[in-house]
Fold this protein.
Amino acid sequence: MGEGLPAQKPPGPMLTRMQEYPVGRGQGPHDVAPAADGGVWYTAQRSGELGWLDSKTGATRMVKLGAGSAPHGVIVGPDGAPWVTDGGLNAIVRVDPATNAVRRFDLPASRPNANLNTATFDRAGSLWFTGEGGIYGTLDPRTGAMAVFDAPRGAGPYGIATTASGEVYFASLAGSYVGRIDVATGRASVLDPPTPGQGARRVWPDSCGRLWITEWNVGKLASYDPATKSWHEYVLDLSSHRTAQPYAVYVGEGDVVWITDFAQNAILDFDIASGTYSGHPIPTAGAEVRQLAGRTGEIWGAESGTDKLVVIRLGP
């Protein structure tokens, strides 16, 4: 366990440019997922839609998800389709990328108002999801069978991710812990970061199986190594009068850790080997990028505060 104050570094040569794409006014884009066809899926939380952006032209097409929809997360599954966690519908939603057909998997009636957040697929093809209302669960896309579990410490389950070895972990914002899910039994065990009340928000694994967690309440980035059961925390803001607000985290090519910081209105890249980071300011003020995802050469985010998507394109 340890805590470090990483040095800031100037933007590296890998950063080519940042580009913003306006989407529909009032859509409130929340999460993004690069699509198999080269486009980008995004959840339009305020308009109850799933959007698809053509990154070459900036054009979008929208899919209505149903009355009362308020989609939060979107990921692309092993089948190439976008899968959505929809808090308004209290359901998992699959959209056919070819026909735009919408299929709903409703949570049990005994689990209302789960406030569904984020999803991930395990190596067996089962989808695992979180609900800030105090649940996590799993769906078998082949049969539609669903199981929902009470989360340790109640409300808070937020970001969720699967490691290369097949382990599933989630972060609990209100509970201030990381949960490890036993995919065979569904049981969750609690891992406590060093700082109490840190507000673990999103989680993402690197290629070595370490977890990287944004600690929203305290302005830190944390890492956890399951092999050694060791923690490390990094303060992300060097100013004495301001606290960082790290929200999203994504580990991209070369194990570079990408983070969004609401306080600086920036996307940060953190180099694990050197322990240094640099900030890339977002052109539009108040962007509020709540999630990051990527593919080769690109890091994508959704600007929930400005109705835009943003991409960082990487160079050699």
